[in-house]
Amino acid sequence: MFEVHSLAAMSGLMAVVLGVVLLGVRANYPTSIRGLRHWGLAPLLCGLATVTYMVGGFLPAWVSVLGGNGLLMMGFAYFLFGTQRFLGLPDVRRPWYVLFAVCLTLLALFLWVQPDYRFRVFFFTSTLAVTCVVHVRVLWRNGKGFANRLTACALIMQSVVLVVRGVWSLWMDSPFDNRFTPSLMQSLYLGTYSFAVLLVCVGVLLMASERVRSEFEHLATHDSLTGALARRAVLELADSEMQRWQRYGHTFSVLMLDVDHFKQINDTHGHLVGDAVLRDVVSHVRGALRASDRLGRYGGEEFLVLMPATDLPAAQAVAERVAATVRNAPVAAGGPHCTVSIGVTSVGAGDANFDVLLARADAALYRAKSGGRDRVVAAEPGIS
After folding, report:
1. Is pLDDT at 182 greater than 80 in this prediction?
2. How many Å apart are CA 288 and CA 234, to the nearest integer?
3. Pick from 45, 233, 312, 326: CA 20 to 30 A from residue 2's CA?
4. CA 37 to CA 45: how far, in whole Å?
5. 3-state class (DSSP) for residue 376
């Protein structure tokens, strides 16, 4: 059996170090990664609670019973609050503050009115267990991946030990024991508490790291202004479609889309308005496409759409819908009205590579613009 004071001191020191690490990580991570401040404060609150317990023998009993336990409850809650913010869930705190106030009231009752350490342990561990179980539910329902599961498993382990400790406390011989009375249960509780705090901190750090990696991958494959696929990404998808065509004969179509009179929009209204126009056009185009279609920014105001498993008539119908959607989109007061010209083609037997389709779609787009703009022109395979 481990010495209880040493376990408590180790738990507090570990919690403080982990809190400092998480807050340091927050300072170097993108601000879009939310929840890191709460995750960093959580182990610091747990560490401060441990310090309060350790010096409790030199201070009035209520300092450790109400102060220490209150800090530990807030530490567990801040882990939960951080996860909610990280996952983009509502940060609802009032019910937790009410629960903690009720718990502290019961602790005060069994400290001053009817002193009984057993009931204090039962109510306190039950409150912590509820916090852990809700946290597990949030993680399991709203996130996937190794980091989420690791964090959830650590919290499950802590919940089980908390429930066992709470029930065990009701069978203690003396109502006047304290948290530093040597026992196997107390050693198990402090040991698993230290391990759980470590695993939860590692878990949330991995969750944040996975989010950063995901954001960098998104930035590498998407246009930062419009959110459409970047040129390289959409061309890689096009090469994959070409390979499927050559191997299995799976047809596909291509749209080349250009915003009409975009230079004039920039010259008249400025580049900020021009950027807003591109974002709006992409939003309207994406809304008119199908779930399987892939929209990429080819360059400037020109966009490329890949349409898997789509023949030319079907692609032309979608292109007409896209043009009509942009044409009829509401215009902000004082903003420019926008239209698009679209060239459409499909893969054909004589197409050796995707560049051939691209040239054919581009030629069709040129004819659409030469013919008055705000229109769709289709080019049959084999016709440039």
Report:
1. no
2. 18
3. 45
4. 12
5. strand
Give the phi and the psi of residue 230 in degrees, each rounded to 5. Answer: -70, 160
Q: Which amino acid is at 279?
A: R
CA torsion angle 272 276 277 279 (round to 10): 140
CA terminus-to-terminus distance, the chain? 83
Q: Does pTM surpass 0.85? A: no
Helix count (H) and strand count (E) of the chain? 13, 5
Kindly report each contact of residues 136-145 with a partner whose C-beta sits within 8 Å and lies 24 or more positions away, as own/partner: 138/80, 138/83, 138/84, 138/87, 138/89, 139/83, 142/87, 142/89, 143/87, 143/207, 145/207, 145/210
User: Which pLDDT score, from 0 to 100, does residue 1 have?
Assistant: 43
Q: Which of 359, 364, 314 is nearest to 344 (CA)?
A: 364
Express each pLDDT in 112-156 by its tens digit. Answer: 999 998 899 999 999 999 999 999 999 999 978 899 999 999 999
* Among 48, 24, 47, residue whose Cα is nearest residue 36: 24
Rounded distance between C-alpha atoms, residue 369 and residue 373, angstroms: 4
| Alpha carbon distance 384, 366 (integer Å) | 11
Question: 57: pLDDT confidence band, cut at 50, 70 and 90?
Answer: low
